Design the sequence.
């Protein structure tokens, strides 16, 4: 899957030599309510749904895996800035912090009023809940990036962080 992603990025960026101005923006975990047809992201809603089903938040394995995160509103401002200013062939990561799946589950428990720590579920349980690919590639992997180039372009994320968003925001479910 990663090799295919690299090949796709190279194909897209090759259009800079064909009179186009391609730019790639690569977010990791996106949170917050979008305004499109499918307003929810993936990881946080998956975790909230499972917590409600079980009566306690749960993460795949020990929950030590870390994902960089970015609010959808901040991601939109990066896209607008890239359209306005990014040079052809640019590649930007998008993030405004990072958290472990355990930290996300702890905040879900606080938001839902569940006592105690989140549970660790096996990979088999995670695959049964979310599908094998999502369990391994989305819920039990690491995805850590730094948005250094995006910030050099002038991007300044301002939305609340993922923990505050879970506990007070639109992802309450």
Sequence:
């Amino acid at each position: 899957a990663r090799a295919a992603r690299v090949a796709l990025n190279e194909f897209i960026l090759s259009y800079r030599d064909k009179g186009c101005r391609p730019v790639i923006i690569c977010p990791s975990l996106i949170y917050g309510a979008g305004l499109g047809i499918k307003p929810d992201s993936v990881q946080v809603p998956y975790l909230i749904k499972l917590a409600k089903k079980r009566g306690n938040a749960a993460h795949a394995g020990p929950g030590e895996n870390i994902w960089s995160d970015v609010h959808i509103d901040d991601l939109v401002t990066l896209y607008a800035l890239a359209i306005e200013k990014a040079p052809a062939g640019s590649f930007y990561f998008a993030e405004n912090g990072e958290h472990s799946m355990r930290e996300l589950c702890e905040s879900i428990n606080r938001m839902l009023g569940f006592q105690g720590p989140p549970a660790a579920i096996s990979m088999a349980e995670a695959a049964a809940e979310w599908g094998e690919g999502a369990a391994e590639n989305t819920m039990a992997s690491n995805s850590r990036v730094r948005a250094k180039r995006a910030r050099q372009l002038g991007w300044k994320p301002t939305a609340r962080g993922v923990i505050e968003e879970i506990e007070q925001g639109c992802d309450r479910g």
Notes: The chain is about 45% helix and 15% strand. The radius of gyration is 17 Å.
